[in-house]
Design a protein that fits this description.
The structure holds 2 protein chains of 2 kinds. Chain A contains 10 helices and 15 strands. The longest helix of chain A has 38 residues, at 184-221. Chain A is an alpha+beta fold. In chain A, 42% of the residues lie in helices and 30% in strands. The radius of gyration of chain A is 43 Å and the shape is rod-shaped. Chain B is of the alpha/beta class. Chain B is 29% helix and 25% strand. Chain B has helices at 12-24, 36-45, 63-71, and strands at residues 4-8, 28-33, 50-54, 56-57, 60-61, 76-80, 95-97. In chain B, the strands form 2 sheets. Chain B has a 5-stranded parallel sheet with strand order 2-1-3-6-7, sandwiched between helices. Chain B has a two-stranded antiparallel sheet with strand order 4-5. Chain B is globular. The N and C termini of chain B lie close together (11 Å). The chains are: A alpha+beta, B alpha/beta. Chain A binds chain B through residues 198, 201-206, 208-214, 216-217, 220, 286, 290, 293, 353-354, 357-359, 361-362, 364, and chain B through 10-17, 20, 32, 34, 56, 58, 80-83, 86, 97-100, 102.
């Protein structure tokens, strides 16, 4: 923006100067004009001093404009921050409160400015806050302390706070800034992990206790040579059931998949004579474990003494949902045919306990055993409620 | 006279194993309850000398059962897969961590 400037020297002689410069912002609503350059239009005295002053004024105005821009930039950062940024004086009274603090704690800035910060503190955190502020007063910055605050509505919020001293231009500490980051999600995630680990520990100990019971019962049933094979077969069956449960997030196991998984100790050739038929309903975890173990014992017995102990016998496993009037049951039938003549077992071992008492307890059901000479038949009826996952 | 014992355990194999141990130790197992309701009914209807109590039954805390047992002054042993410090309601009741040697149960004074 060029222009003409008329000035007079000390003798009153008028000199024309050409001036160039521009508008400059002094704040949000103030403008100034800065003379950037003066060029003498007619030979005269040198106004060196004037030029120097103008240069100093120019630099100061530039510096002030830069500061104003910087302050505006910082204000924008504070305003748009997702973290609550609060400043307090050395008496603990709030001096500034950004938008995130409003959202996080529920107080509008006019409700807290000038008020003591203690209204945000749970009773058990008052001493902690006093200690943090005391440290800041001595110039110390406190990084990321996990703590808690109280919102306006009285609910608690987990936050991580960083507290720093605020210095004035002479280096004196005049206040404290506090940046609070909402860590509710992290705390929930930590709590979830803690519960999960607790549950894993509980389930693994329960499973170990089950394995221990299987070992003890198997040992009571067999000689040392047969113990290893029987025990390992039972463990594999239990493990297969666990795999199916894990695949479904411990929620539900398809009955057909379960039955097949419990016969891994049978060869493929023998499995060709096993037929899983009927409805494909889903069992919950405890029902799957109980029924799975029973199916494993039934298969083992069929292989040792029943329809799978010869080359031609067959086994049909028929799974049915029985829905009739008020009845809502599951029925699983294990039916052997074509095997050697059936004989009632002389003694009751662990296998019998599993297919009769254990499974009955697991599904709150009823078991029927039929040692018909033409083929052994086992039938389980249990209420769908508490057994089936719909 | 044989001690009358109730087993409250939702894992049938463990319950049957404990039953075998207690029977071998000379106790009379009057029943096995797999959930809280069944346990409460048996405690209210049967004469019981002591109870073996699983700390969690089908995903629910067995605390209500323990409360009823304390009211009726029936001694009980808590069997748990959790750390004992994780379950405040156990209080001063004797407890055994899973997996456990079921013979240990037979060593408690009120079982003998």
């Amino acid at each position: 923006m060029p222009g003409k400037l008329r000035l007079s020297d000390k003798n009153g002689e008028s000199i024309i100067w050409s001036a160039s410069g521009g508008r400059i912002a002094l704040g949000s609503d103030r403008l100034g004009f800065v003379i950037l350059r003066l060029r003498k239009q007619s030979p005269s005295l040198v106004f060196g001093e004037l030029n120097k002053k103008i240069g100093q004024l120019n630099a100061e105005l530039r510096s002030r404009a830069e500061l104003a821009r910087s302050a505006a930039h910082l204000a924008a950062v504070v305003k748009s921050s997702a973290d609550a940024i609060i400043t307090k004086d050395l008496d603990g009274r709030v001096t500034s409160w950004n938008s995130a603090a409003e959202r996080m704690f529920g107080y509008a800035s006019h409700e807290v400015i000038g008020q003591p910060i203690s209204k945000l503190l749970p009773p058990d955190r008052v001493e902690e806050e006093a200690s943090l502020i005391e440290n800041a007063r001595f110039g110390q910055q406190i990084q990321s302390v996990d703590t808690a605050r109280i919102r306006k509505d009285g609910t608690a919020i987990d936050v991580s706070v960083t507290i720093s001293p605020i210095f004035d231009s002479s280096g004196e500490i005049v206040g404290v800034s506090s940046i609070a980051h909402d860590i509710t999600q992290r705390k929930q995630s930590e709590e979830h992990t803690r519960l999960l680990m607790r549950e894993v520990n509980h389930r693994s100990k329960n499973l170990l206790a089950v394995v221990q019971s299987i070992a003890r019962q198997t040992a009571g049933d067999t000689g040392p040579e047969e113990f290893t094979r029987s025990f390992l077969d039972r463990l594999q069956a239990l493990s297969a059931c666990q795999d199916l449960l894990i695949e479904s997030d411990w929620k539900a196991v398809n009955i057909h998949d379960l039955v097949v998984s419990q016969m891994s100790h049978l060869t493929d050739k023998i499995l060709q004579r096993v037929f899983v038929e009927g409805d494909r309903f889903k069992l919950n975890a405890s029902a799957a474990q109980g029924i799975g173990m029973a199916v494993h014992e039934l298969a083992t017995n069929a292989l040792k003494y029943g329809a799978l102990s010869n080359a031609t016998g067959k086994v049909h496993i028929i799974c049915t949902r029985v829905k009739c009037g008020k009845t809502n049951d599951i029925k699983i039938v294990w039916k052997e045919q074509g095997g050697p003549p059936v004989k009632q077992p002389a003694k009751t071992g662990f296998g019998r306990t599993v297919i009769e008492r254990m499974v009955t307890m697991a599904v709150n059901g009823l078991v029927d055993l039929d040692y018909n000479i033409d083929g052994f038949k086992w039938q389980l009826v249990a209420p769908a409620d508490g057994t089936v996952v719909e | 006279m044989k001690k009358r014992v109730l087993i409250v355990e939702d894992e049938p194999l463990i319950a049957l194993d404990v039953e075998t141990t207690l029977q071998a130790a000379g106790s009379n197992v009057i029943g096995i309850a797999g959930d809280i309701n069944a346990a409460m009914k048996l405690i209210e209807s049967e004469c019981i000398d002591f109870v073996i109590l699983d700390a969690e039954l089908r995903g629910r805390s067995a605390e209500p059962v323990a409360k009823l047992l304390r009211q009726r002054e029936i001694p009980f042993i808590v069997v748990t897969g959790y750390g004992s410090n994780q379950l405040e309601w156990i209080g001063d009741a004797p407890h055994i961590q899973k997996p456990f040697d079921s013979q240990k149960i037979a060593h408690f004074d009120f079982v003998k």
